[in-house]
From TrEMBL:
InterPro entries: CMP-NeuNAc_synthase, Cytidylyl_trans, Nucleotide-diphossugar_trans, PseF. It comes from the Bacteria. Keywords: Nucleotidyltransferase, Transferase. GO terms for molecular function: N-acylneuraminate cytidylyltransferase activity. The keyword Nucleotidyltransferase applies. The gene is pseF. This is Pseudaminic acid cytidylyltransferase. It comes from Stutzerimonas kirkiae. It holds the Pfam family CTP_transf_3.
Length: 231
């Protein structure tokens, strides 16, 4: 069986009720659920939450919530892998064997059905544990600076005179989805290793939504992309 697992805890601090807050006309979580449904990749689309209101919204959007997430997996310090492992173990205990599972974040309105299908193809076509969304940094990380006591210093001062085109391109987690083999999730294998493959996304379709400023930027970008498709 192939699962989409959407973690959606109720205790968001910086943006209260973030997972179900209206985003461009729909609850934020609805965009992830719709992409999962449209992809045709999944036998079940499951939301893991500790919050009754989130559970109800998720069901209304087409996902299922077969259980409520236990308290010990619902605090600010619980990582993604234990949450995904818990869902897989629950289904396995029901006699419903899981082969692959995709962790799909509830706050990923830019995720597309096509990207989810590509991630599955990459996972199935390669000897790897995971395939997950990544994008490139817009600026060379080797020329990054820090600010200490109001003063500036480079992380890598040896690259002050290095031309940007001569520096190695760097990438980061796009924070949208993580396809994985069930055994990798169950064994708690790390995601950012050579046993993972990238699903490369363009930068204009990637935006973290962690702060109110992120939220505003994401809505602007989302509306611009929608308008571009309609033109």
């Amino acid at each position: 069986m192939r699962l989409a697992i959407i973690p959606a805890r109720g205790g968001s601090k910086r943006i209260p009720r973030k997972n179900i807050k209206p985003f461009c006309g729909k609850p934020m979580i609805a965009w992830s659920i719709e992409a999962a449904l449209q992809s045709g990749c999944f036998d079940r689309i499951v939301v893991s939450t500790d919050d009754a209101e989130i559970a109800e919204v998720a069901r209304q959007c087409g996902a299922e919530v077969p259980f409520m997430r236990p308290t010990e997996l619902s605090d600010d310090h619980t990582g993604t892998i234990p949450v995904i492992r818990h869902v897989i173990e629950w289904f396995n205990h029901q006699g419903l064997g899981v082969e692959q599972a995709c962790c799909l974040y509830a706050t990923a309105p830019f995720v597309s059905a096509e990207d989810l299908r590509l991630g599955l193809d990459i996972l199935q076509g390669n000897d790897c544990d995971y395939a997950f969304s990544v994008t490139s940094y817009a600026f060379p990380i080797q020329r990054a600076i820090r600010i200490n006591d109001g003063r500036v210093e480079m992380f890598n001062p040896e690259h002050f005179n290095t031309r940007s085109q001569d520096l190695e391109e760097a990438f980061h987690d796009a924070g949208q989805f993580y396809w994985g083999r069930a055994e990798a999730w169950l064994q708690g294998r790390m995601i950012f290793t050579p046993c993972s493959f990238p699903v490369l996304l363009p930068r204009h379709r990637v935006q973290d939504v962690d702060t109110p400023e992120d939220w505003v930027r994401a809505e602007w970008l989302f509306k611009a992309l929608k308008q571009d498709r309609e033109d």
